[in-house]
Amino acid sequence: MTDTGVSLHDGVHVDLSDGTSVVVDAGSPDGDVNVLTHAHGDHLFRGNPGPVVCSAATADIARERRPSADVERTDDPRVGLVNAGHVAGSRAAVITDPDGTRYCVTGDVSTRDRLYLDGFDPPDVDVLVVEATYGSPEYVLPPQAEVEREIHDWLADTMDRPVLLFGYSLGRAQKLQVLAAESDRERVFVTESVARITDALAPHVDATFDAAVWDADAASGGSGPAGSSPAGLGPGDALVLPRGRATRSLAERLRTERGALAAGFSGWAIDDSFRYRGNYDATFALSDHCDFPELCALVEVADPDEVYTMHGSTDELATELTRRGFRATALRKGQATLGDF
Ligand SMILES: [Zn+2]
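^ thats the input. predicted complex w/ zinc ion below
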């Protein structure tokens, strides 16, 4: 085995044969070329990133999430960006070494077509760095159409109640807006934080987001029956909100005072513990990641000589890929990927 030049430190480092270091998704990017696959917090720079290779959508979302940062997009002839199908603007980095070796760093990835997103189409590369969030055999998600049908059925069956739809501000929250808008729900609201991210990405996707911003302060002032004030949440209404300390007390109040039902959306919903831990009334396996069979299929299509797994079930996925005949290694922080391990 030869040194592929891939290692995991602060972000994924790809050291090219001409001495150039390409760094993907670092908190403090320090490569000769820095790439940002998407604007989720665990991939996004913290300080000022310097020029960064990313999509226009990711740059706009990053500006919203890091208002003090100077986000300047750049490009590099050695780095191509291809749709990763994870969230709006997400891209996988396809890096071409001057010696001809082609690398792909997927970032977070989904091969499923979902609402306004097209799935990732794996490129043919020599070295693949693939995420492994659901990289263990038990993580098999239902087909997308089935998940969406279950969500629509639940939204229809609970029309006598307001519903709280919990999802990350970037990704799930926009899909939940679209699903709620497709349903018979009379009014769809989002929290301020969801609205800000939605506004940043909306110009970049083929979807309409017309949910109103929920005014929690105005809503808490009314003590009348549900729906008596414009800000009050009543039967037939839906509120899309991120999960977190700030929304926990709001959610509890809406459940107590308005009889709201809470729903959680994640690939982890295939496990019952997701529902109990989250104190949800209902959960749905709506995911922005590949499940286990999709990860295996992705690698088969990319057909790399070397594959590295990162994030999540890295050992389990590497084991399965090895069984399938790939040279697969779980990428560990600080460990070089030489043949001497
Ligand atoms: Zn992500």
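Residues 296 and 321 are 7 Å apart (CA to CA).
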